[in-house]
Design goal:
The protein is mainly alpha-helical. It has two domains: 73 residues, Helix Hairpins; 107 residues, minor pseudopilin epsh fold (3-Layer(bab) Sandwich), CATH 3.55.40. The protein contains nine helices and three strands. α1 runs antiparallel to α4, α5 crosses α6 and α6 runs antiparallel to α8. The N and C termini lie far apart (37 Å).
C-alpha cells in the first residue's frame, strides 16, 4: 500500500452532542465505548482494507461517498466484498444511528407533516409505529439492527438486518436506526433490550433530523 495515501477516506460523523449528553438514558461510558472505540474500529478497518486494494483516485471516481460504496458493494473485487459489507456497514450504520439521536426530551419535536401522514397511513399513529419497532427489534437474534425505511415503492417498511448489514445494500432508504447489538445497551439496561428500545424511541429520537432525511429523499 502506498504510504502516502490518505488513511481515512471514509469517515465517521462528528457527534451533534457530547458523549455525556444522552444521560441518564445512555451513560458516558456506554457512549465512549460505542463511539470512541467500536465505531472508530469500523472506520479504521474499512479504510485499511479498501485502501490496500483500491487506489484513492479510483475511490474518488467510483465510490466517492460511503453511501455510494455500500449501494455498489457488489461491484467491488470479490476479496473486498465481505469486509466492506461488515466494516462499511458498521461505519455507515453507526453514522446514521448516532445522527438519529438527540439529548433526552419529554415532548417530541414537531415531525414533518407529510412524514407524519405517511406514518399514520401505514401504522395509524406514531404510538403504533413505536410499538411495531419494539416488536420487530425483539425478533433480532443475536446482533443486528431494526430500521424504519422507505422502500423502492416509497412506502414505509420496518426491516431487521443481521450483524452490520445495512439498508443501503438493498436499495432501502433509512429513516430510523435502532442498534440492537448488546454493546449498545448492556451497560445501561443489562439484557433488557425492550426497555432500551422503548426509551430510545420515546426520549432520544431526533425527529428534526429524521424529518430532514425524509424531505431529502422526497425531493431527490
Amino acid at each position: 500500500m502506498n504510504k502516502n495515501i490518505t488513511k481515512e477516506f471514509y469517515k465517521k460523523i462528528d457527534l451533534p452532542y457530547k458523549l455525556n449528553e444522552l444521560e441518564p438514558i445512555i451513560n458516558f461510558l456506554s457512549m465512549h465505548y460505542h463511539y470512541d472505540v467500536l465505531h472508530e474500529n469500523y472506520k479504521i478497518n474499512l479504510n485499511e482494507k479498501i485502501l490496500e486494494e483500491i487506489e484513492e483516485e479510483k475511490l474518488r471516481k467510483d465510490f466517492p461517498t460511503l453511501e455510494k460504496l455500500m449501494k455498489c458493494w457488489e461491484q467491488l473485487p470479490s476479496k473486498l466484498k465481505e469486509d466492506v459489507r461488515f466494516f462499511g456497514g458498521g461505519l455507515i450504520n453507526h453514522n446514521f444511528f448516532f445522527a438519529n439521536l438527540t439529548k433526552p426530551y419529554k415532548e417530541e419535536e414537531k415531525i414533518d407533516p407529510d412524514l407524519l401522514a405517511l406514518i399514520q397511513k401505514k401504522y395509524t399513529s406514531l404510538k403504533e409505529l413505536k410499538a411495531k419497532l419494539i416488536e420487530s427489534s425483539l425478533k433480532v437474534r443475536g446482533s443486528g439492527w431494526t430500521w424504519l425505511v422507505l422502500n423502492e415503492d416509497n412506502q414505509l417498511q420496518i426491516v431487521n438486518t443481521a450483524n452490520q448489514d445495512s439498508p443501503w445494500l438493498f436499495n432501502l432508504r433509512p429513516l430510523i436506526a435502532i442498534d440492537v447489538w448488546e454493546h449498545s445497551y448492556y451497560l445501561d439496561f443489562g439484557t433488557d433490550r425492550k426497555e432500551y428500545v422503548k426509551k430510545l424511541l420515546g426520549h432520544l429520537l431526533n425527529w428534526k433530523y429524521i424529518s430532514n432525511v425524509y424531505l431529502d429523499y422526497k425531493n431527490s
